[in-house]
Amino acid sequence: MTNAETSFFRDPLLFDELRNWVLPSCSTRPGAGARGFWCAACSTQGRSPTAWRCCSRLFPEALAAGRVRLIATDVSRRNLERVRAGCYTRGEINRGLPAAMLVRWFEDEGGCWRIHPRLRELVELRHLSLIDPWPALPSVDLLLLRNVLLYWPMDRRELALARAARQLARTA
User: Fold this and answer.
1) Is 141 left (phi over 0), alpha (psi -120 to 50) or beta?
2) Spatial separation of the C-alpha atoms in residues 144 and 154, rounded to whole Å
3) What pLDDT score was predicted for residue 1?
4) Where do the structural domains in the chain lie, given as residue ranges?
5) What are 100-138's pLDDT values in tens digits?
6) Which residues, listed in sequence order, are joined to residue 68 by a DSSP beta bridge?
């Protein structure tokens, strides 16, 4: 069972916490290696671009130097194609996207608001079912796994969370 219901900055309090506390702590953690961020079950719009925009604001130099890896996965190839295209209707844009972000990161293409290529290029999209065996994935500092597990029976939740915990970097 999947649920593609999403919007930009859905649950604003969470993204405030990411922007103000979680991501800055990632930037100051020990070690000079690349930082990894993974948005699992990214759906069609809000989750991955929203998280990546937060990262681009906090890590501009690291992003430019290729030291931040941004991964978005979903079980639906159709959802991944929508994220890859980065084209959203006015109705989707009006569901939580701040006007300043629209002006800076989107272009009006007449009936479609497209995310700027620079932001789209930052995200590595992968097809992944959280239930099936996972392919090799890099360790990450932050894994967003939101609004997915609540639909699953407890044994599947436990399996997904155990796998997710193994993907976290030791210093995450």
Assistant:
1) alpha
2) 19
3) 47
4) 33-167
5) 888 888 899 998 999 888 778 878 889 999 999 999 888
6) 35
Contact (CB, 8 A) for 42 and 146: no
CB contact set of 92 (below 8 Å; sequence gap of 6+) = 7, 8, 45, 113
Show the tokens assigned to 110.
Answer: 């007449």
Provide the mean pLDDT of the chain.
Answer: 78
Q: Compare 38 and 55 and report the one with higher pLDDT.
A: 38
What does the pLDDT look like over 161-171, one tens digit per residue? 999 999 988 77
Q: What is the Cα–Cα distance from 40 to 167, expressed in whole angstroms? A: 12
Q: What are phi and psi of 96, to 5 degrees?
A: 105, -5
Q: What is the pTM of this model?
A: 0.77
d(CA 13, CA 9): 9
pLDDT over threshold 80, residue 12: no
HSE (side-chain half, CA atoms, 13 Å) at 144: 31
Q: Nearest CA to 50 among 95, 1, 3?
A: 95
Task: Select 33-167's CATH number: 3.40.190.10, 3.40.50.1100, 3.40.50.150, 2.60.40.10.
Answer: 3.40.50.150
Q: Which residues pair with 39 in a beta bridge?
A: 72, 144
